[in-house]
Write a structure and sequence with these properties.
Number of helices: 10
Number of domains: 2
Shape: globular
Helix content: 25-40%
Largest sheet: 10 strands, mixed
Strand order of the largest sheet: 7-6-5-2-8-1-9-13-16-17
Radius of gyration: 21 Å
Low-confidence stretches: none
CATH topology of the largest domain: Rossmann fold
CATH class of the largest domain: Alpha Beta
Strand content: 15-25%
Oligomer: single chain
């Protein structure tokens, strides 16, 4: 079995979707596995023929024809799935989505709670209910994909959920939520032939694990409270591959760590190198202004943050054969980065990449540019 894991090295928006798409082009028989997060992902994929899509509820290999498996570590949004499915169908794409029956289900209550809470805290939430869904599960008010198969059970759980939020003091904004519409979408999800609810991951010889967000947003070593409620590194990947202990043995997996040629962050939370006066004019950016996350920010690449991200994940730290993918290379020149607090400016792409290669001690580097044709291996 050949396995790949594509993991963001920053605060998200690194270009993971494009890397997944490129790997799927090379491996058309692979299964894409979403192993963390949920419907808050926004992975933009562009094909050379002009077809493009931003994936939130399907894997980023969907335009290539690769099926997606949504693991039990991920939340699902029935309304979001059906709406995105209809968009894909309108583009002539017929996706296949496997849902693990134990996936936590986001209801309109969690979305509304998440948005109201974000107004008060400014933590940088996407406002689509992922964090609150996980919190609700931990409070034992469980709604999982398997419950969608039993409408009477689902209705009873929804009623108890309404009481759960009322008891927490949020009765004033539960009455206006359209639960009948949500139940209709749940029924559509169960009946749609493109979506299959299963107990275990289907067997494929090639697995491509698609990360969401980035290592610097990991719930365990990100900058709390501006984190995501997920293990964004290799923890869940190892579980999927049957490794009970991180240090038990060497897993057979090819790791692709992804960063842009510059640093980005959606929403609030710490970010280095702001105020350097450099603007990266990428015409393919999505949601630059607005949204629940807040402002989209850019700054120079910070090698110290990349080193910290690598050091924080046990498997990535101890592997010397990982690949680094640097996306958005066509929006540099001159290329900015910092190391040990010092600003370094490179007129030549080659010098910029060699500096990153030497500082991170990574020997295999790929570069990507827009529109996205594939991965170009760097030969220093």
């Amino acid at each position: 079995m050949k396995n790949f894991a594509v993991i963001g090295a920053g605060f998200g928006d690194e270009g993971k979707g494009m890397v997944i798409s490129s790997l799927c082009q090379q491996h058309p028989d692979a299964l894409v596995v979403r192993f963390c997060g949920g419907q808050q992902a926004g992975h933009h994929v562009m094909l050379p023929n002009g077809l493009d899509h931003v994936f939130s509820n399907f894997g980023s290999g969907t335009l290539q024809g690769n099926p997606t498996y949504w693991s039990s570590h991920c939340t699902i949004d029935p309304i979001g799935i059906i709406n995105e499915l209809n968009v894909l169908l309108s583009k002539g794409i017929h996706p296949i989505l496997f849902l693990n029956e134990m996936c936590p289900v986001t209801t309109p209550y969690e979305k509304y709670f998440n948005q109201r809470h974000e107004k008060l805290t400014n933590h940088g939430s996407c406002g689509v209910g992922v964090g609150q869904t996980i919190q609700r599960q931990e409070d034992h008010h469980s709604i999982r994909v398997m419950d969608l198969l039993y409408p009477s059970v689902l209705k009873m759980k929804i009623e108890l959920l309404k009481q759960y939020y009322s008891d927490a003091g949020f009765a004033s904004y539960t009455s206006g939520i359209d639960i009948p519409q949500f139940l209709d979408y749940c029924l559509m999800l169960v009946k749609d032939g493109h979506i299959k609810i299963i107990q275990n991951r289907p067997h494929y010889n090639i697995l491509i694990f698609e990360g969401s967000q980035g290592l610097l947003l990991d719930q365990n070593y990100g900058f709390f409270p501006h984190v995501t409620r997920a293990n964004t590194g290799t923890t869940n990947v190892l579980k999927h591959l049957g490794f009970k202990s991180d240090r038990a043995e060497r897993p057979d997996i090819n790791i692709y760590l992804v960063t842009r040629s510059y640093q980005t962050r959606h929403g609030n939370g710490p970010m280095t190198n702001q105020g350097l006066g450099r603007l990266w004019n990428n015409p393919h950016e999505g949601q630059i202004v607005g949204g629940w996350q807040g402002e989209f920010r850019q700054s120079a690449l910070d090698l110290d943050l990349l080193k910290y991200a690598i050091h924080s994940d046990w498997l990535i730290k101890q592997r010397r054969d990982i690949s680094l993918v640097i996306t958005c290379m066509d929006y540099g020149e001159p290329f900015f980065l910092t190391e040990d607090g010092k600003l370094l400016i490179y007129a030549m792409e080659r010098d910029f990449v060699i500096k990153i290669e030497d500082s991170l001690a990574i020997k295999r580097i790929f570069l990507s540019r827009d529109p996205f044709p594939g991965l170009e291996e760097f030969d220093g």
